[in-house]
Specification:
Blueprint (H helix, E strand, L loop, with lengths): L22 H11 L10 H5 L19 H17 L6 H4 L5 H17 L4 E7 L3 H7 L5 E6 L3 E2 L2 E3 L8 E10 L10 H7 E11 L16 H6 L4 E6 L15 E6 L2 E7 L7 H12 L11 E3 L7 E2 L5 E5 L5 E6 L1
Parallel strand pairs: 1-10, 3-7, 4-13
Antiparallel strand pairs: 1-2, 5-6, 5-10, 5-11, 6-7, 8-9, 8-12, 12-13
Helix pairs in contact: 3-5, 7-9
Length: 330
């Protein structure tokens, strides 16, 4: 695969529209005027060739330092990195002005490339919601990314060649039976809209190197967001349970690597209750007409620190009453 083209210098500043209903018109105007928006709803917006707002906190103009050509080129770098298993340097060092909104634009442009190649979105993941994960990543903001169909693995053997530097996190997955939308979604709404909760392990990866090769500094949140929130794989196992029948905050797990206990934790480590993170995501998507849809998988966030995996490693994840499953990197 050919290497991505050289990056243009960032030289424009653009803004999100105040009215999300004007997005289609703004997308058309952006091509004529050079203004820029962020890729958002997928695959509809991607297939239409439109760029849309990604992660606003409220209806206001947000400065976006990187230009569209730079965003697309950085997305191509990530795509190339994943295919070749060669990490790229920190975007935040090369482009110090990069914003969180730019990070989501890069991530969604990359996801759009995957969808164009035949992949299908199956849900979302929420990251950096627990104190443990924030400390491990030296980051104090949550983020989210898109789950695609080729990221799903059953318990058992998982090809190590799919990853660059995989790490394993212990989580709970919510599978929705009803949509969640609006800026006032509560954890109670999440529980009511959930078909079942099941034990899950997320496999995270780093297309952008975790530590800068020149300075040894940890990557910034903008890098992690650009990298689809470090999303790479998902293993679900154990029992499917009605969230109304269990105390989610007291759900615990033991993670063993090659027979050795490496991590233990309670789901209360995810903002006090994992349903809080799912409600947070629904509210963040709402201002731009997006929602969590029935049938989606939502990974609510890790309540342990990530454990680095090597080829041949066997992992055993014990959730007690919610079941136990194993997988191995081969």
């Amino acid at each position: 695969m050919a290497a991505p083209s050289p990056l243009p210098a960032p030289n424009t500043r653009a803004f999100l529209p105040r009215n999300p209903r004007s997005i289609g018109r703004s997308c058309r105007q952006s091509r004529a005027t050079g203004a820029r928006l962020i890729l958002s709803r997928l695959p509809q917006c991607a297939s239409a060739g439109h760029l849309r707002p990604a992660f606003p906190t409220r209806h206001e103009e947000i400065p976006l330092p990187l230009n569209p050509e730079t965003i697309q080129a950085l997305a191509e770098e990530l795509h190339h990195s994943e295919k070749t298993r060669v990490q790229v340097e920190h975007f935040s060092r090369r482009f110090p002005e990069i914003s969180i909104a730019d990070g989501y634009a890069i991530s969604r442009a990359w996801v759009a490339m995957k969808i164009a190649e035949g992949r299908k979105p199956v849900g979302h993941k929420i990251g950096l919601t627990s104190r443990a994960m924030q400390q491990a990543s030296q980051i104090d903001e949550p983020d989210f990314g898109t789950l695609l169909d080729d990221m799903l693995f059953p318990p058992g053997d998982i090809p190590f060649s799919r990853f660059i530097a995989p790490r394993v996190e212990v989580e709970l997955a919510f599978v929705l039976k009803a949509p969640l939308s609006g800026e006032s979604v509560t954890p109670q709404d999440v529980v009511a809209a959930t078909e079942y909760v099941t034990p899950a392990v997320e496999i995270i990866d780093a297309r952008i190197e975790q530590f800068d090769r020149h300075t040894r500094q940890m990557r910034r949140v903008q890098d992690t967001i650009s990298d689809n929130a470090a999303n790479a794989g998902l293993v679900m196992g154990g029992h499917r349970v009605d969230p109304r029948g269990v105390d989610l905050a007291w759900t615990g797990a033991i993670l063993r690597q090659n027979g050795v206990v490496e991590e233990t934790g309670l789901a209360a480590g995810v903002q006090g209750d994992p349903s809080i993170g799912v409600a947070w995501l629904a509210r963040k998507l709402a201002p731009w007409g997006e929602s969590l849809r029935a049938g989606e998988i939502v990974l609510a966030g890790s309540f342990t620190r990530p454990v680095a995996a090597r080829q041949g490693d066997r992992f055993d994840v014990d959730y007690g009453a919610l079941g136990r499953f194993e997988f191995r990197f081969v």
